[in-house]
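ok posting inputs for the flavin-adenine dinucleotide job
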Amino acid sequence: MELRSDFLIIGSGIAALRAVPEVAGHGDVLILTKGGPEEGNTGPAPGGLAAAVGPGDTPQAHAADTIAAGDGLCDARAVEVLVEDGPRFVRELISWGVRFDRAPNGELALAMEAAHSARRVLHAHDATGREIGRVLWERASRLPRVRTQDHARVIDLVLDQGRCVGARFLTGNGEWATALARTVLLATGGAGQVYHETTNPHVATGDGIAMAYRAGAAVIDLEFVQFHPTALMVEGQPRFLLSEALRGEGAQLVNASGEPFMTRYEAAGDLAPRDRVSRAIVRESRRTNQPVYLSLAQLDPDFVHQRFPLISGMCRRAGLDLARDRIPVGPAAHYVMGGVQTDLDGRTTIPGLFAAGEVACTGVHGANRLASNSLLEGLVFGARAGCAMREECAGGVTLPSHVPTASSGTKAGRLTADPIELTRMMWQDVGLFRDRDGLTRALAALEPAWKQLDSMLAERRVLDAQDWRTASIVTVGRLIAGGALRREESRGGHYRADFPDRDDVHWKKRVSEKKT
Ligand SMILES: Cc1cc2nc3c(=O)[nH]c(=O)nc-3n(C[C@H](O)[C@H](O)[C@H](O)COP(=O)(O)OP(=O)(O)OC[C@H]3O[C@@H](n4cnc5c(N)ncnc54)[C@H](O)[C@@H]3O)c2cc1C
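and the output
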């Protein structure tokens, strides 16, 4: 099967769906998405979306907080675009029908989150991503000449004389298909599933980073992974996120004796940056040899259930009452700051290929992302990428009449690596506490799998969907581990136990790399 369109959008999260209105009406749009339309990191985002819309708040204050969280590596121009354009995009969402929570006086209800200097987080109860996704999806589906194909797992990009002209994908029936387009947007989200402990849903295996890297695009900052401190730690339950907004409203981390412990490790206490809270939880847990809990016992139970209905329901399903019980929590991989290197309009280093959202890296988050900045990033940079794609097509880009796309061979292949083992090793050796020995061990385990993958692709072996999942874990895992071994300092989400200090003399720089 060969499909042709003007704009190919890969993914159906906030970045993809905010790009669509920019290109719809200017040509045929095809959206390919791996699972159901709502699967991805946008839907489960409970906490909210940061923008300087409150009284007394300013884009400059939002920029200062973003840059402080980024620990010296934010791209100042990207931050400026994010915070200056943010309020406009929020107003637009409201005009499109997103129902953010409001205070009794009708003003937007703004939450406080860690490392923000003002109340600036808009929310829709604790299902903010789902509410935004609902509105963007409804809007995109009504736009002219927009087609969607779900359960379409994009595997690799199609290049013609160095330009990206489409992608190959596996349909839900396991058949190969090709989608050719004048411009292509990668909006495939994050890579949390590279780790055994993660808040990310099943689809978040970093496929976009892996395929862009294999196609020769530059990737950058991949050593910077954010670990969220408070995932639900109940045996047999998914690592459901207990949003930071809980601590923003007064929830406290306590040890097994019920003592609050955060100030023992961090002056900012429960609202210290995520990586610091995550490491403090591990240290306290090691010190006491006991789990760590989140306690909301000091808050009004009616308020807790009303403000956090989704999280209350999840806890109930795990046999816990959010308002009364101590909730066992621990860190999990949450967000990848690095990704496919782009400029401020989503252009990657491959002509015709754009990227936006979590898969992309503009440098807006530096070494660590400020809470609630990524939904905003998806909106702002998704729209900018869509705009740039439209302008590029208006400039007369044409699709070649014949593109050699039959790159899949006939001989089947099987990767020998065990993906579960690899994700366990990533968690153990490339997680919260890193050092040279662990990183070297991880790379030594990943290297044979990478070499096998590389040679199987060179021989045009046919892999099945499960092996493509493993291929992404191997490719992205190796990039994260390699970047982490190279960076001999600690900064933002990257902590080296053998180099515990930030080293601005040698490492106040971002490192970009391409497949050689
Ligand atoms: C539990 C959780 C809570 C969060 N809470 C917040 C929050 O409160 N505030 C905030 O700002 N951020 C939050 N984040 C981060 C934020 O939600 C994400 O960074 C953001 O939604 C990413 O949007 P996106 O459009 O880039 O990707 P996604 O929303 O992840 O969408 C990616 C899309 O690409 C598709 N896809 C992936 N691979 C392929 C492939 N091979 N072929 C075809 N399609 C593919 C997926 O199916 C999906 O449709 C949270 C993340 C998680 C996991």
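notes: The two ends are 32 Å apart (CA to CA). Residues 2-224+337-394 form a domain with the FAD/NAD(P)-binding domain fold (CATH 3.50.50.60).
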